[in-house]
Amino acid sequence: MKISLKTLKYYVDINVSVEELCDKMTLAGFEIESIEKQGENLRNVVVGKILKIEKHQDSDHLQICRIDVGKGESVQIVTGAQNISEGDFVPTALDDSYLPNGAHIVAGKLRGVDSFGMLCSGEELCLTEADYEGASVYGIMILHGDNLQPGTDMREVLGLDDYIIDFKITANRPDCNCFIGVAKEISVVLGTEFKQPIPTYKTVGENIKDYIDVNVLNYDLCPRYIGRIVKNLRIKPSPDWMQKSITASGMRPINNIVDITNFVMLETGQPMHAFNYDDLSGKKIIVRNAKEGESITTLDGNEYKLNSDMLVIADGEKPSCLAGIMGGKESEIEDDTKNLFLESAKFKRDNIRHTGRALGIRTEASGRFEKGIDIINTEYAMNRALQLISDLDAGDIVEGVLDLNEGLPKNRILTVKSADISALLGVEIPESEMVKILNKLELKTTANDGVLTVSVPSIRDDVEGRADLAEEVMRIYGYDHIVGTPMRGDVVRGTKLPERIKTDKIKSLLCGMGAYEIATYSFISSGALDTLNLSENDERRNAIKLLNPLGDEYSVLRTQLTTSMLSVLATNINRKIEDGRFFEISKRFIPKQMPLTEQPYELPTMSIGIYGKDEDFFTLKGIVEEIMKLCGAHTQYERSCEAYLHPGRQALVKANNVEACVLGEVHPDVLANYGIEQRVYVAEIKLDILLGINKRKSVFKPLPKFPAVERDFAFLCDKDITVGTLEQAITKGAGRLLERIELFDIYEGSQIPEGKKSVAYSVYLRSADATLTDEQIDTATKNIIEKLEKVGAELRK
Fold it and tell me: What is the value of pTM for the model shown?
């Protein structure tokens, strides 16, 4: 909320500097966004009076002027302007002056004649006709007025000797989104007098009911509607003080009628709207829901299709205004408008917000209605607008008011013990001081036997109980009164949950392996899953759609993390990062049923992505195995058939016989969808499974006392038999003597039959009790061969 300091001083006495005022308001809960000093870029430019003009002897267009610049001084300035005369008052930039356009003016010579400054045009001062009458004239800007004095700072003449303060108004204080609201707070903070305008005006008789009929068909969306008639409008520019006040707050002056409605909105927080009375069909105003498919052309020239949830202000035939948002083009106030119908109303905030979003419109008025306005304030705002119309002689006010409502709220009564407020704040505040502060804030308060009885007006709907009253007292009493005190009682040391401890260990493990943790949004595009080439009936396509997304890019909750990982990998590759290892621990969101009627499952999940010249499938497999080992899982590998992974370079990993991970090289078609032109490897781990595994206890195993025996086996088997199946067979065959297995060769070539492959293992056997005998070794070897033959493998000869 931008307000000029001069405007604030109209309502409240300010006896401190602007810097001190802003510091005090910040401590009272009103953050200051910015302080702008007007005219900061206009320096050493004064009012000058032309005393004498002579022709330049060496130029046919230059003139030599003697300028009175005040304090008994005059300077010589050479100018090429032809629109000046002796006796004119003009803006004069003296030696070492600065203009708003960035120019630095210094003394110099023009055609051999000394010139100690420059006479300024409106363009050079960055002024328009709206800023100062005559600013758009070609040539020097001629100043006008009866009280001009040479030497007067031009900032004072132009009204630029002011400060504009931008107050950040929190959502719970819509009552302060106006001049009066901020001024009230300043009066309390500074302890000075608040001067609220008391509206008075004259009417010209007659009866409003003879002019118009008003009907409200939906009091739920419009709890109060007030209308007045003003005839014989005299439309002209609004006074200078009003234009400057409106401009300082970021609005554009138009004419006295429109400016009055805008000024009253800024002053009271109550948006208003003026209709061209003569354009209202049937001389009726009907507050109703729009008809399905009905349309309206608004003041900005855009046509909007409406639905039945939207509220409109209609005449006898059609909508004339989008309630609380923007007026209609057909009932616009124009320069030849003679009569108007003036509206001040309370509209339901939710409806204004929904309508504005649906149509893509947001205005100063709709912003205020969305935050909430006071239903009582609508009457004061109407009377204030009529006062300004009367004072500025902008029209004749017809007698009578149409005020439609179904009853107005009464003040709410809160009771709270003063001791409870002090206990909540941790500061002993005298009861009398609490009463004084609350009364200053217009929360009428009395005290009786330690109990405060507070009458809360409708304008302060943010005050609901003890905590709110305590906040109001403390922000005025001063947070500097709070004294730090040590904690009392036993302090229980917090501990992490087991799942969090295990997750932290996994993160530490991966960071130790050179991987970087990433964090991506849980929201993804509705088309993201298409990039993985998943089938139409894949359960991961059953994603939850957001009702009000920021855009299609963030429109669904992800059921997997792989798309996000691939996006990160693609970004790094495109930025010429040669290699990388990344991981993310987040959640995937799985609906319990569709349509969604309850919260989805939020399952912890981990995604890993690697790429680079030294990375391959087995690198990723090793990383996954270390994670499984850390979590105490017994690992098994099986063939997988993920569409987004290379068909021959992927695997399903089971943890304790439960599917826990899919890993592999990304399919070339999927890589093309992300613009990646090199091999990339990803894994997605169901952390909810790993976190639920109780880690097996570590058992001490002494160093072996007896030697191990190594036997190499080479087998022929079908290509579709997995290495995991062969290893299980070897493990069963070797029994307790098995120490470890090492795969050292897989071969497919000219010497191998079609559809077959050669797989070679080194098997290490050892006994903890004695050196193995030939008989034990032969028995184990025979058992291994038998078990392998049962799964379809035969020993190579």
Answer: 0.63
